Amino acid sequence: VLAISLDLIAGHTGMVSIAHAAFYGVGAYASALCTTRLGAPFLVGVLVGMLISIALSFVVSLPSLRLHDDGFVIGTFGFQIIVFSVLNNWMELTQGPLGIPGIPNPSIFGWRVETRLEFLGLAIVSCGLAYWVVYRIICSPLGRVLHAIREDEVFAKALGKDTVCVKVTVFAVSAALAAMAGGLYAHYITYIDPTNFTV
User: Fold this and answer.
1) How many CA atoms lie within 13 A of 30 on its CB side?
2) 3-class secondary structure, 113
3) Calpha distance 149→192 (Å, rounded)
4) pLDDT digits over 110-139, tens only?
5) How far, in Å, CA of 3 to CA of 10, rounded?
6) Angle at 23 between CA 52 and CA 86, to 5 degrees
7) Can you spell out the DSSP letters for 4-64?
8) Do 36 and 66 contact (CB within 8 A), yes or no?
9) How many CA within 13 A on the CB side of residue 63?
10) Does residue 17 have a pLDDT over 70?
């Protein structure tokens, strides 16, 4: 799921993002905190992580996507370092380097995922969902604009395409999918700490 989300932004749009581990970590921490502290269901925790990642992606992408090539890489790298520092130092929320133990196994509409085989099934369904979302984007007119941006952004702008809006949108989708992967990871491992989400 994480690879599919990165492929959307790097492979199809041509933007190398170093911040992907940050969105992965935000999804993992949001889902872990929702389920351990608030007692929320697994799907709610993953959804909260995705929404937070989408909001953060707008904060990062609006200034960063106006940068090109190396400037964009450095901007996303800076965001990655900031997120890692927050996860590592906000003791009251994330417990810092101690991490969050005791993350419960996923439970979906009464079905509790306990064995590795069941978790494999959940992972395959999640991967299929992520692939379907990316495939639908790539096969749409938006996908053709993404490929045009990857090949020659100036030419895409000359054709009247709003490249900044398209890149912000695809960055948000990519961040949401990365957060979904983070939620799955947290509930599979049942323990997370900031070192899981470094560059």
Assistant:
1) 28
2) coil
3) 36
4) 788 888 899 999 999 999 999 999 999 999
5) 10
6) 80
7) HHHIIIIIIT----STHHHHHHHHHHHHHHHHHHS---HHHHHHHHHHHHHHHHHHHHHHH
8) no
9) 8
10) yes
Q: Name the residue with tokens 């417990």.
A: 95
Distance CA 113, CA 111 (A): 6
Extract the tokens encoding 19.
Answer: 């911040």
Rounded to the nearest integer, the mean pLDDT of the chain is 90
Q: How far apart are CA 47 and CA 6, in angstroms?
A: 19
Rounded distance between C-alpha atoms, residue 135 and residue 129, angstroms: 10
What one-letter code names the amino acid at 133?
V
| 100, β-bridge pairs | 192
Residue 165: what pLDDT? 87
CA distance 134 to 143: 9
The residue written with tokens 């509790």 in the block is 112
